[in-house]
Design brief:
Elements (H helix, E strand, L loop, with lengths): L4 E4 L2 E5 L1 E7 L8 E6 L7 E5 L14 E2 L1 E3 L9 E9 L2 E10 L2 E10 L6 E9 L12 E8 L10 E7 L5 E7 L5
Parallel strand pairs: 7-11
Antiparallel strand pairs: 1-2, 3-4, 4-5, 5-6, 8-9, 9-10, 10-11, 12-13, 13-14
Length: 180
């Protein structure tokens, strides 16, 4: 299943979109949802924000496209599947970078004091292994990130999805705060 319309309460929150990643920063901030734009060629990402502070039910404003600075070596053919987390004032994003037939895990950051949609590319995090029948043979993509707020010294946990040549999908977890 890959729904392209996400609903909440009385109506659609997000249409023509997939792979949402929600960012909730507190009562004084809007709820932000980062997502892949599904316009027939899923190679771009956007963010929508609630128009009322911290309101999970919306209403939500119009989507804002994500922009990138820096060389597109990890994602020359586009980007999709954003996964976001804030640490301090830095918004960290892992995403799937499209490079020919390769699907890489790429990394970008934004300074939340100036923008939630302008990201500086930081480069490649993981590339497909090309090892026959390995879980990450053809694709390695971010699925989610998690920091245990009750144990601040705990490492960042990153969950990845991989695909082998038989198109079987796997999930892996990497507990490593050294990614950022």
């Amino acid at each position: 299943l890959r729904p392209t319309t996400w609903t909440k309460g009385a109506g659609a929150v997000l249409a023509a979109a997939s792979h949402p990643s929600a960012l909730r920063s507190g009562a004084a901030e809007p709820m932000r949802i980062y997502h892949t734009v599904e316009d027939g060629t899923p190679n771009s990402m956007a963010m929508i924000a609630s128009t009322a502070n911290d309101d999970l039910d919306g209403p939500f404003g119009a989507p804002s496209n994500l922009t990138f600075t820096g060389a597109a070596t990890c994602d020359p053919d586009g980007a999709k599947d954003p996964v976001v987390i804030v640490i301090g004032t830095t918004l960290h994003m892992l995403y799937t970078g499209l490079a020919g037939t390769a699907r890489n895990t790429c990394y970008a950051t934004a300074d939340t004091t100036t923008s939630y949609t302008a990201f500086a590319r930081q480069g490649l995090v993981l590339a497909p292994s090309d090892v026959a029948h390995a879980y990450d043979e053809r694709l390695v993509a971010p699925a989610s990130m998690f920091v245990d707020s009750e144990t601040p010294s705990a490492p960042l946990s990153v969950f990845l999805t991989g695909t082998d040549s038989g198109e079987r999908r796997f999930v892996d977890a990497v507990g490593n705060s050294a990614i950022f």
